[in-house]
Inverse folding.
């Protein structure tokens, strides 16, 4: 079973398994997250034992915890937990593995062992603080947990996303879903340039905008929609048309340029400004039920849009 599948399994089946295990292992004491928090605030002497896997620790942990994956307890507990009479509170993600770990410790002769109900996920949902080596807040660790669990992203990748600055050209049919997903993913700064206003005919596809936004600048309604989705995101709006006079200056402030425009003059302008500022340019175009997408990074030795299409194609021939 892959690690990602395991995490989903424990999240979905965890509460049911915890109840079943508790019924089977009645000799294992359980403490609520509220009781553990109260004891910690009182300064009660206890050992906090995290029995999750190494990659899960990026999601946050209780300060001053000892880390021993559950499967490693028989080999490692003796050296890391030398006092068999010290009060030990075991926790995991959702309170399932910690019951099994507590049972193992009791069988090894540890006398005061308890399992924390609901685990670290319940701890975070209750609003209690967790420690982290990532620099992310407790809320961010929860919001982006599915990213953090992916080895291709992880906490380091999420921090890079939060530090990234992406400029989106256009807040229409292409730009709206792009903005939604970039904001939800945690791209820290989104610039949006569009001089258009919301029209009733936009609403069947331009999902950032609502009926009450008709007549408003698209940049305004887009900014408000993004704030509703993810307050982490800083949105910089440019309620103006992209031109040869302002393109270079605006592009210089961003790491990546994403094209959501609907006409070739703008796409060629985006390409040229990205080329001269050395910024990667994500190209997209849609025509009815067809679409095209590409990434141009001339600074890395690749082609640009003009390499593929030296001249703008006739209207309607290719997606725009």
């Amino acid at each position: 079973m892959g690690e990602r599948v395991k995490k989903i399994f424990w999240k979905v089946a965890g509460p049911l398994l915890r109840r079943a295990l508790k019924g089977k292992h009645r000799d294992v004491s359980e403490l609520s997250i509220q009781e553990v928090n109260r004891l910690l605030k009182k300064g009660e002497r206890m050992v906090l034992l995290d029995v999750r896997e190494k990659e899960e620790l990026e999601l946050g942990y209780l300060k001053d915890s000892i880390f021993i994956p559950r499967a490693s307890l028989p080999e490692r507990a003796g050296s890391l937990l030398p006092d068999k009479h010290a009060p030990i509170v075991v926790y995991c993600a959702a309170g399932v593995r910690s019951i099994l770990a507590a049972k193992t410790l009791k069988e090894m002769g540890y006398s005061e062992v308890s399992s924390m109900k609901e685990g670290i996920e319940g701890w975070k949902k209750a609003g209690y603080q967790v420690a982290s080596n990532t620099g992310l807040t407790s809320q961010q660790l929860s919001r982006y947990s599915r990213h953090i669990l992916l080895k291709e992203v992880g906490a380091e990748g999420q921090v890079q996303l939060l530090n990234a600055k992406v400029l989106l050209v256009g807040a229409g049919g292409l730009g709206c879903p792009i903005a939604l997903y970039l904001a939800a993913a945690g791209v820290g700064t989104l610039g949006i340039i569009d001089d258009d206003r919301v029209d009733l005919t936009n609403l069947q596809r331009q999902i950032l905008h609502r009926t009450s936004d008709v007549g408003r600048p698209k940049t305004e309604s887009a900014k408000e929609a993004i704030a509703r989705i993810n307050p982490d995101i800083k949105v910089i709006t440019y309620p103006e048309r992209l031109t040869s006079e302002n393109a270079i200056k605006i592009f210089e402030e961003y790491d990546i340029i994403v094209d959501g425009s609907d006409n070739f003059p703008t796409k060629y302008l985006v390409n040229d400004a990205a080329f001269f500022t050395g910024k990667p340019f994500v190209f997209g175009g849609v025509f009815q039920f067809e679409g095209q997408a590409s990434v141009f990074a001339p600074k890395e030795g690749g082609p640009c849009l003009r390499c593929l299409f030296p001249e703008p194609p006739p209207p309607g021939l290719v997606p725009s």
User: Anything to note?
Assistant: The chain has two domains: 3-145, 164-308.
